[in-house]
Each structure stands twice: as structure tokens, then as C-alpha cells.
Amino acid sequence: MKGSVVALGAWRGRAAVARLVDGRLEDLLVDPGGDAPLPGAIFRAVADRPMKGQGGVTVKLPGGARGFLRQTRGLRPGQALLVQVSTHAEPGKAVPVSTRLIFKSRFAIVTPGAPGVNVSRRVRDAALRDRLAGAVAGLVPEGAGLILRSAAAEAGEDAVIADAAAMCELARDVTAEAAGGPELLLDGPDAHLLAWRDWPEPELVAEGAGAFAEHEVEERIEAMLRPRVDLSGGAYAFVEPTRALVAVDVNTGGDTSPAAGLKANLALVRDLPRQLRCRGLGGQVTVDFAPFAKRERRQLETALGAAFRADPIETALAGWTPLGHFELQRKRERAPLAEG
């Protein structure tokens, strides 16, 4: 099917949402299994003990769970504080948390402790920026800030104001609950809420029992569980997560021409953000490119930069290793698909 489709359904008993563009799976959100809190959840926690050598402190969460906060200055054992889950916890490790809270909706982000009203730089119209900023300036809680997201440019002013007001009220309510023992104050967004909040408006929303079947979503998800990725020109790659990192290996296939390596590598680079996104993979990513001339490194670097600039998940391009691999560091915003 041509155009963009968002299909809502379930996969292996968990809520799931797929975004398809011209029949290709472009993004996938699946609720993680288990009891680990979702990124974005806000807790009242209690500071425990510094972790010497690790640059942080453990905090007590409800139910005996523990978080890890990369901050020790100004904290004392037993102190109550508000923390937000920043990324998915790796199995067997403490939940990564931060004291920098954000309250995010489709049009607005409220930032307690970071004052100021700003509008996304993607909103180019200066008059519109000024009008939107002026419309919400009086809503912001004292000591907090508000950022209007790019989606606000396409919405009606009343809708933007209502959305921003709701986020400001939520921020006031949650931040007023700083005193006391460990408690969950706000759940993190599930897959369906994340899709509504962060994805572009689709041309079609498909929901109900037959939505996934109609758009062959389950088959596309199963393909993402397989390590092999077929690329153009007969090339292929393997994307394989390990406990330490995600390993990506690129092969030219049957092409033995002098340009085969570069063509295969560029094909992988163009598809790599989508592959990592849909597989829910983050952390360290190491790419073993197919053999290519060293003078072509700059071309690959430029292609990598362009590919990941368009990706919504924060990714740092670390560069080349002495052995000729390329390393990336990617935020763990999602649970690995294979863990479900």
C-alpha cells in the first residue's frame, strides 16, 4: 500500500504499534515484557549509597527495586528525591534514572528546573514561533520551562494551548509529591501512547483485531528477529546483539567488482537506523564493513551522519577503531525486540 499507515495491535501478548511507509516497516514499538519500569516513568526515590568508582549513587525504588543515578553531589543517604527512568535497564542491572525530569506530550515538553519558553527550531516561520510562544508563556509553572515541539506548527492554536496546559498541570502535581518514601508517581508511556506522541500524522490509522494481519505486521516483526538483512545488489549483513554490544557484519554477496564493498557498505548505512530502531537495539554498535578502499572512509562517514540525523533516537558516531571497524553509541530508549 502506498502512503503511511500506523497499525495498532498486539504481538506475543504485548501492545505493539507499527509504522509502514509505502509498504515497508519504518518503525516499530512493542511494550517490553517483565516488571521493569518504562522510560519516562517518574518515581519518588530514596538515596542509598554512593557507588565508588562508578560515579553515581543507588536509589531505592518501590518494591525493593533499585535505580542508578549518575549524581552524588548534594545527596545524602536517606534523602527523598524525584527521579525519572532515562533508558531501559539491562537484565540484572539497576534501572538508569535521572533527576532532570521532563513531561512530554505531542506538542509540548515541560522542563522543571530549566526555565524559559522555546519553540522547536524546525518551526521556521518566525511569526508563528512568536505567536505560539506568547500563547503558552503564561501557563508555565514557576521555575520550569516549556518547549513547543515541531508538531505544534501543524496544529490549531487552541489544541496546542490545551496540550501545553495539561502538561504544565501534570508537572505541578508530580513535582509537589517530593516528600515521602519510594513511590511510583507517573507511569512511562506505553507503545500506543509513544506512537501518538512522537510519530508523524499518518494517512491511515488501522486498528482492531485484523489490523496486523491486513498489513502483514507479524511477518515483518518476525523478519526483524532474524539476524540476516538482505541489501540491494545481492549484498547482505548480519545484525546480532550480544551482552556487550551489537555486532553488524557486512558482506558483498556474489558481487566481485571493485566497487562491491563500497556499494554494500552504503546500502547497509542507509538501512542501519531502521534496523536498529525496529529491533529495539541500543548501546554500543560495532560495524565490520565489507572490504573497501581506505580513501572511501570519508564517504561512509558522511552517509552515516546523514542517516542518523534523520533518526529520532540519539546516536553518537564514535569513529573508526584501530582494526578498521566503526563504532556508534546509541541511547537505549527501547527494549530489545528479541527479549520478548
TrEMBL record:
Entry-linked Pfam families: RNase_E_G (PF10150)
Alphabetical keyword list: Endonuclease, Hydrolase, Magnesium, Metal-binding, Nuclease, RNA-binding
InterPro entries, alphabetized: RNA-bd_AU-1/RNase_E/G (IPR019307), RNase_E/G (IPR004659)
Names of required cofactors: Mg(2+)
Ranges for domain RNA-binding protein AU-1/Ribonuclease E/G: 104-199, 208-332
Domain of life: Bacteria
BP GO terms, sorted: rRNA processing
Record GO terms (molecular function): endonuclease activity; hydrolase activity; metal ion binding; RNA binding; RNA nuclease activity
One GO CC annotation: cytoplasm
Cited PANTHER family: RIBONUCLEASE, RIBONUCLEASE E_G-LIKE PROTEIN, CHLOROPLASTIC
Name recorded for this polypeptide: Ribonuclease E/G
